[in-house]
Task: structure prediction
Amino acid sequence: METKKNGIEGKVVAITGASSGIGLTTARLLAGYGASVVLGARSKDKIEAVAAEIEKAGGKALAVVMDVTKPEMVDQFVAQAVQHFGKLDVMINNAGLMAFAPLDKRKIDEWNAMIDINIKGVLYGIAAALPQFEKQNSGHFITISSVAGITTSGIGSAVYTGTKWAVRAITDSLRQEVAGKVRTTTLYPGAINTNLVNGTTDSESAAFVKKFYDEEAISPECIAEAIAFAISQPDDVSINDIVVRPSSQII
Result:
């Protein structure tokens, strides 16, 4: 994939879950391409450190403390992006939780957390940014799903997979609603080397996931590059779905 820097430079990009992993890596890459990045996460210290790093390197960044499970904070996240930079071009719904465990373990708190972050968090991001995009008559939603959103991933993944199938349905329905005005892209990463693997409290599932990721996982830079590719396209081109797996990953 060839990334066109001139399709990114000058754009304002808001990223949830920007304190680590895919969100952090994407912020650094897009800032390097000339985008102004708005970093959203719960950890004030982490996102402020990332923003300072980007600005020291000559980029433009704004850190906003927010929690994607709280719609009022997501609304404020978008509002501050627009207030600070004058517009919003791209909303990246990246924050996520992966808590594998068989259903009979009854990890109900973790089920609820995945539903709140993976599904409601995406909906809140859409609800916050869509009015601004409609006002501008332009914009781009990028949602980080998972290969679990296009296939089942084995024992222990039922709830996580369910949330990611929901995200797939939501984002494709969004695509149909906003076609011709707002672009949409959904990314389906396979095993990526991030702290997503630390989401479960079930020891057996945690050991399985760690072993799988130790053997298979690839760098989050590959997802950041895919995001940059989607953003860099001309306004009349929408890259709707991108699946990125380690070449050795079967599921």
Q: What stands out?
A: Residues 5-235 form a domain with the Rossmann fold fold (CATH 3.40.50.720). The chain has one domain: 5-235. The chain is about 45% helix and 15% strand. The chain has a mean pLDDT of 93.
